[in-house]
Structure formats: structure tokens, C-alpha cells
Amino acid sequence: MKKIMTIIIAAAFLAAQSPMAYAATASYSVEKVLSGSVTTKISYGSSSCKKIPVKYKASTGLAYPHHLIFFGLTNKAEDEIASTDVKVGNAYSLDFGGAPYSGTVYIEVCKSSKSVLVDEECDPDVGQEDGTECEYEDTVAVKPGTYYFQASVMQIKPSFATADSKKIKIVITK
Q: What is the pLDDT along the chain (174 residues), one digit of tens a residue?
């Protein structure tokens, strides 16, 4: 009996340590070209910032720069709080785009504002190719509360079009 109880306690402890034990997720889709899931409950805990994982699977018919995929977080007033994008495919076989058609990206939220590079490819130690300094922007402080996630696909060619997923409620706690 003691052995069985030890096994049960050990199994319960291991299950509680699993990331899936804490992660509530919701699924999203944009027409028939993009689908995935997003974590809906985020807790800052002792961290000043958290990364919200967004899993995605895009149609192989999408190709950057003809198509862009955006993931955004807004407040109730529909102000953009944080976002990220994915540039799948590579329509021109140039040195940009080419993200995999499925994967995970992250939307970072922080308790207080912070300064981030506008162009991720700019080296702060060297600056821009034209000799100017790298440009920075301040992120929005994201306080605990309720926010809304939405995925969007924008088509630029052959004709301009956009499509969005339904909004998904995201709750951020202390």
C-alpha cells in the first residue's frame, strides 16, 4: 500500500510540473489559410516580462512578400498592445521571408515599458548601413487584465485583401 501511495504521489507531482498543466489554450483560424492555438492564461509571477506562445500552421500557398501574417494583442478599446508577424515562404527567392509554414512565435508582454529595436537586423554597435543610428521605440506596459488576441492574413498581390480570426480572450495575472 505504501508503494502504491508513493507512486501516486510521484505521478501527481510530475503531472503538476508539466507546462501543459498550467497552459490553457484556444484555437484560431483564418479562412482556410492559417490555423493554430494561443495560450489564454498568462501569469507574470516574479517575471517582469512573459512571452505568449502562438502556434501556427499556414497554407503553403502563402508566400512573402505577397502575403503577411500578423498576430496581435489588443485591449478592450482595440488599441494594439503587442504584436509579432511571420513571413512564410519566399516569393522572390531573395534573402528575406522564408519562415517555416508551421511553428511557434511569441508575443512578448512586460509589466513596464521597455525600449526595443525597430529594425531587428540593425546592429546597435554599428548602426544602419547608411551610417545612422539604430531606431528604437518604447513598448506599452501591459498590466494584469483582460486582452484580446487576433490573427490576421494580409494579401498584397494579386489583389489587396485581409482576413482575421475571431478574437480570443487572453487573461494576464500578477
A: 555 444 444 444 444 444 444 569 999 999 999 999 999 999 999 999 999 999 999 999 888 888 999 999 999 999 999 999 998 887 666 666 578 899 999 999 999 988 888 877 788 888 888 888 888 888 889 999 999 999 999 998 889 999 999 999 999 999
Instruction: Report which of 43, 69, 65, 67 is spatially closest to residue 55, judged by C-alpha positions.
Output: 69
In three-state secondary structure terms, 5 is helix
List the grid coordinates of 53: 506562445
Question: pTM for the full model?
Answer: 0.77
Beta bridge partners of 165: none
Considering the segment(s) 23-173 as one domain, its CATH architecture is: Sandwich (2.60)
